[in-house]
Specification:
Length: 409
């Protein structure tokens, strides 16, 4: 009897297990298969878009003076060094004055000789005037004595000029600072010979005021149309990677720089450097603010770069929704006021052609559909939409999600 009861229990357990397996299979077969997402999408929203122009420049003092020497000589006194703050008229160095003093003494001796010659010529001329009245000498001799007086006077003027030049050379052998500033460069040492023959040698470089700096940067010709004096800018330097500095555009220089057929223009920006953190010669990564619009319809800029792969195009070609996709594209084109059929776009404005882009949106079946839009301001993150059938809340495709052996990437 007990054996019969155990068989019945085992049979019942088996029936229950078979039923549970059948129920699970039926439930699984009735569950719809959800296709894994194949695209990354972003919602169209409204917000602020700021457009900037980027450039690389060099930080320089506003006034940088090169100090040279007009005369040659050997440096015998050096009174200034790197980073010294100097005042206007302060002595920086002196050249050996031995030769210049000798030239001055030579000039003084020549001047004394010329004055003696003048006295002798004047006395001779006076005697000749008396003798010519008494007919002891001819008028020609009187004229010759007058010429000797004129020559002696000219020699005095010549020696005076030579003496003044020698005195000026002696004064120029003492190099003084022409402005108040900071020495940022020194190219001479004590005992070095300075040769000022054809070009003036540079002895020092003095920055007038390091609290006021400027950035000399080159901007591409494609970006100069958006530049205006007084525009704000921000920049960073490698020395302070975690800090942004502010600048303001002061000047756009018309002289173009052409290097390998690439045209750039020099743009100068003013920088306030009260704490003197910025040093001359630093490289600045500059962002000039050229446009700012608030509460505009915008999409991620990545949506402009997305294109369907060949596999996706083949899938769409085989899909029954091709006709619907064509209708969507036609609607978008009508929203952009498509040109008449006889317009081949040859004489349409360049702005109409270059500011029109094709993006992709997802329909109700999560299939990508092309749509043409016209854009306005753009930066690396957002782009303004100024024409097309897009509206706030629509989903635009930014990139595809690739499948691999490990799953979805």
């Amino acid at each position: 009897m007990a054996l019969f009861t155990k068989k019945k229990i085992a049979l019942a357990v088996g029936v229950i297990a078979i039923g549970a397996a059948a129920l699970a299979f039926y439930t699984k077969s009735q569950t719809p298969v959800v296709e894994a997402p194949r695209f990354r999408v972003a919602a169209v929203d409204t917000g602020t878009i700021t457009q900037t122009v980027t450039a690389t420049g060099t930080i320089n003092p506003v006034a940088l003076i090169n100090i040279g020497s007009q005369v040659s000589g050997t440096v015998n006194v050096l009174k200034a060094d790197f980073n010294d703050r100097v005042k206007k008229g302060q002595i920086l160095l002196t050249l050996d004055p031995t030769i210049f003093n000798a030239q001055i003494r030579q000039g003084e001796a020549q001047l004394a000789s010329a004055r003696a010659s003048l006295r002798l010529a004047q006395a001779t001329h006076q005697r000749n005037q008396t003798l010519v009245t008494q007919s002891f000498i001819s008028p020609l001799a009187l004229d010759q004595s007058k010429r000797e007086v004129d020559v002696a006077q000219a020699n005095i003027q010549l020696t005076q000029a030579q003496l003044a030049r020698a005195q000026a050379d002696l004064n120029n052998s003492v190099i003084r600072s022409p402005i108040d500033g900071v020495i940022i460069k020194r190219t001479v040492d004590l005992g070095q010979t300075v040769a000022a023959s054809f070009t003036t040698p540079t002895l020092f470089q003095i920055a007038q005021d390091l609290t006021k700096m400027q950035i000399d940067t080159s901007v591409s010709e494609a970006d100069v149309g958006a530049l205006k004096d007084g525009q704000q800018a921000r920049f960073v330097v490698d020395a302070y990677p975690d800090r942004e500095f502010e600048a303001r555009m002061r000047q756009f220089r018309l002289a173009a720089n052409v290097v390998q057929n690439v045209v750039t223009y020099n743009v100068v920006l003013d920088v306030d450097n009260q704490d003197e953190l910025l040093k001359p010669g630093m490289t600045a990564q500059v962002r000039l603010l050229v446009g700012n619009r608030e509460n505009v319809l915008r999409i991620p800029t990545a949506a402009l770069r997305f294109r369907l792969s060949d596999e996706e195009l083949e899938r769409q070609a085989k899909s029954a929704k091709v006709a619907k996709a064509g209708a969507t594209s036609a609607t978008a084109n009508e929203a952009l006021d498509a040109p008449p059929p006889d317009d081949d776009a040859a004489f349409r404005t360049k702005a109409d052609l270059t500011r029109t882009f094709k993006i992709y949106t997802l329909d109700a079946s999560n299939q990508p559909q092309p749509m043409d839009i016209r854009i306005g301001l753009s930066n690396f993150r957002y782009t303004e939409v100024v024409g097309g059938a897009l509206k706030k809340g629509d989903k635009v495709v930014t990139r595809a999600i690739a499948d691999n052996k490990d799953g979805v990437r």
